[in-house]
Write a structure and sequence with these properties.
heterodimer, A: 386 residues, mainly alpha, two-stranded antiparallel ribbon, 2 strands, 73% helix, globular, B: 361 residues, MetI-like fold
């Protein structure tokens, strides 16, 4: 068979990505149709930059979601005589397999296209959740630090600055290593870090509904059951149903990334809280006799949502970059993992001769982060318009 | 002002102490020491031999005690073998048996011995820091003017087409981490089979096989455009976008001020307004950000030095971390922490000088 031309490669790749295109069109059609009823999300569709960013992000999200339908080959399977082949090379004996390596083969004769698609799943499985946990920790510590001030503030700020003074890479080398995984350190850190979201949700609901005990007990009960269930599964790998579980590798990476991100979020939240706590509506709530946690979580936090949503998008992008850095140094991932950072690392040895195994994941990572940054920019612009 | 400085320096010391303690603890975990023993004395050691090696080389005492030894507040370990030869921390460092049992740590100016490079840590770090200093100098020379130019051009007419284009460019650079841009640069400019170089060669525009080299090791001897461009660009690009965006935000804010409007109504030309009235005030915020950006560049330095195999400080940090070279890693973290804290201090002081409205009380 003839190798494919560039146009044919693109056409076939687009054809493989068909589920993604359909999902994108449906999302955009529905969102633009109902954009006046969708609040800030709807307003995003008034800004070109925001729309482009959103489209890129959703592209990768859908790619990760439909990855099983999209891939042309098993991302770990090696096909003989396909080592380092250029994009569009036909398989020598296709049999039942897809007859081409669309984006070429890597140094172990695996399909670069399928690895890129599965890599999206690897990245998007961790980055948003790590960013979310970092945010919950940053919020739970930043609100009281800004609101109460005093010794608590001094202590927490010192701790945050301590972590921020660490060069990120040094921290990664120290925290993400096979030797560390054998110790209790990741489990203890995860135990502390994952406890904060549960406490956060509990306090959030309790401070709102403590005047209606029936409702409060129901909500807090649900949160606690789900929280403890997830906690046991994620931290101690002790979930009987197996729904929540993390390999020690993944837990280690997750903890390190959250640890690096949380202090920055803390500083942002603290700064915003210092600003908002002088507003009249906070004084009004204090005069009403509301408790401090109610004021923090239901008066200050909702009014800080604009900058926080924007930063959340940027933070997912930054987390993606951090995960790539980890992969680039071969930390905390299995050598076969298709995640973009380690694929770039594997491809860089033969970069000057066979650039495609490294270029494909590099461009993918760049486009995802660019999409998130553009999305954040669009959101910022639209939220400033009110 | 003096009190402020003293307090900041005090906090700096406490931070550095805490950080080195954390690094010390994490590099001295039993499992890490075992790895170190195996890389130093052969990978096929039995557990018993490993334990003996650890004990013989002074890694046996409690972590806090050894941290004290490293700091120089406790006397170094001493061990007398059966045949009467004395070994010890200070004996090895000073090459003098009489030094056994004295204090030899950071306070005495002894940085320790690197197990990876088999040399004094101080001389290893000193040489590498010089190499990285050169790299950073060029990075700043490229990055700062470019970032300020992009920011000022974008910010002087908010919402114009120039603004849109340059802002998108700035966002794109912040989305390109060093390991992505480095790979792109190498594939595009430093490969003899793909990218631009073969094209330029066939046109006869360049003499060598490639436009730029993808390996910067030769830059240690002589820095040339060909071997230093790519590492410098790789680091500068990622840091540039952020500074440019801050400059743009600061510039757009200044351009809406009353005094700019007054100048305009007086009939001052636009170029004069930007250069004489706006620029000085718009550059206060970027200055702070540039200073705070320097520690962030350290990440880029590590990635870029590893990618282009330029043996500077970042590459040393990487090698020390990979080989669990405890004392070299500690020295590297001390240097890194000092860089972070000094740049923070400088940005605070510079801010006060640039902005006379702010007084530190």
């Amino acid at each position: 068979m003839e190798p494919l031309s560039w146009l044919e490669i693109l056409a076939r790749a687009a054809q493989q990505l068909l589920p993604v295109w359909i999902a994108l069109v449906v999302t955009f059609a529905l969102s633009i149709r109902f954009k006046r009823k969708l609040g800030l999300y709807g307003k995003l569709f008034d800004s070109n930059v925001g729309m482009i960013g959103f489209a890129i992000v959703m592209f990768w999200l859908f790619t990760a979601f439909f990855a099983d339908l999209i891939i042309t080959h098993d991302p770990l399977a090696q096909v003989s005589r396909m080592r380092n082949v250029v994009p569009g090379t036909p398989l020598p004996r296709p049999d039942a397999l897809y007859p081409y390596y669309l984006f070429g083969g890597d140094s172990l004769a695996r399909d670069v296209f399928s690895r890129m698609v599965m890599g999206a799943r690897e990245v998007l499985r961790i980055a948003p959740f790590a960013a979310m946990i970092s945010f919950m920790i940053g919020i739970s510590l930043g609100l009281p630090a800004g609101y109460f001030g005093g010794k608590l503030d001094t202590g927490l700020t010192f701790l945050a600055n301590l972590v921020l003074a660490f060069p990120v890479i040094l921290l990664f080398f120290l925290l993400v290593a096979p030797e560390i995984q054998d110790t209790l350190i990741p489990v203890v850190m995860a135990g502390v870090l994952f406890l904060v979201p549960i406490l956060f949700a509990t306090v959030l609901l309790n401070s709102r509904f403590f005047t209606q005990p029936a409702k409060r007990n129901l909500y807090v009960g649900i949160i606690l059951v789900i929280g403890v269930w997830a906690y046991a599964g994620l931290v101690f790998d002790a979930d009987p149903s197996g729904l929540w579980s993390m390999s020690p590798n993944l837990l280690n990476v997750f903890v390190a990334v959250v640890f690096v991100n949380a202090p920055t979020v803390f500083r942002i939240v603290r700064g915003i809280t210092l600003d908002i706590k002088t507003r009249d509506y906070v004084a009004a709530a204090q005069t009403r006799g509301e408790g401090p946690w109610y004021i923090m979580l239901w008066e200050i936090l909702p009014n800080a949502r604009g900058p926080l949503i924007v930063d959340f998008c940027l933070r997912i992008g930054y987390t993606t970059i951090l995960l790539g850095t980890l992969g680039f140094f071969g930390l905390g991932v299995s050598p076969e993992s298709p995640d973009w950072g380690s694929t770039i690392n594997a491809g860089r040895r033969l970069l000057t001769v066979y650039p495609h195994p490294a270029l494909v994941p590099a461009l993918s990572l760049m486009s995802l982060v660019l999409g998130l940054n553009l999305l954040a920019d669009g959101l910022r612009e639209e939220s400033l318009k009110d | 002002m003096l009190l402020f400085l003293l307090r900041r320096i005090g906090v700096m010391f406490v931070t550095a102490l805490c950080l080195t303690l954390v690094v010390f603890y994490l590099t001295n975990l039993p499992a890490k020491l075992e790895t170190l023993a195996k890389t130093q004395a052969g990978s096929r050691m039995t557990d018993e031999e490993v334990a003996r090696w650890i004990d013989r080389n002074g890694y046996g005492s409690p972590v806090l005690v050894r941290y004290g030894e490293w700091l120089g507040v406790l006397p170094g370990w001493v061990r007398e073998a059966d045949d009467g030869t004395v070994t010890g921390r200070c004996v090895a460092l000073r090459d003098d048996p009489a030094a056994a049992g004295t204090r030899c740590g950071l306070l005495q100016g002894e940085w320790g011995f690197s197990t990876r490079f088999r040399d004094e840590v101080a001389s290893v770090i000193g040489a590498r820091l010089g190499a990285t200093g050169l790299l950073m100098m060029w990075v700043l020379i490229v990055m700062v003017p470019m970032a300020l130019l992009v920011g000022v051009l974008a910010g002087m007419r908010e919402g114009s087409r120039t603004d849109r284009t340059l802002s998108t460019f700035a966002i794109a650079t912040t989305a390109t981490p060093e390991y992505v841009s480095g790979v792109l640069f190498i594939a595009l400019l430093a490969s003899s089979t793909v990218g631009l170089s073969p094209l330029l060669v066939s046109w006869g525009w360049i003499d060598g096989p490639v436009l730029f080299q993808g390996n910067a090791r030769s830059a240690l001897d002589t820095i040339t455009l060909s071997n230093f461009t790519l590492p410098v660009l790789t680091i500068a690009l990622y840091g540039m976008g952020y500074v440019a965006r801050i400059t743009r935000a600061s510039m757009t804010e200044v351009m809406t001020q009353q005094y700019i409007r007054t100048a305009r109504l007086k009939g001052v030309s636009f170029a004069n307004i930007v250069l004489k009235h706006a620029l000085r005030n718009a550059l206060i915020a970027p200055f702070t950000v540039i200073m705070l950006q320097i520690p962030w560049l350290l990440n880029g330095v590590v990635i870029s030095e590893v990618l282009f195999s330029y043996p500077g400080f970042g590459w040393t940090l990487y090698e020390a971390a990979v080989n669990n070279d405890i004392e070299l890693l500690l020295a590297s973290s001390v240097v890194a922490v000092i860089v972070v804290l000094v740049t923070q201090l400088m940005s605070d002081i510079g801010y006060v000088y640039l902005n006379p409205r702010i007084r530190i009380s």
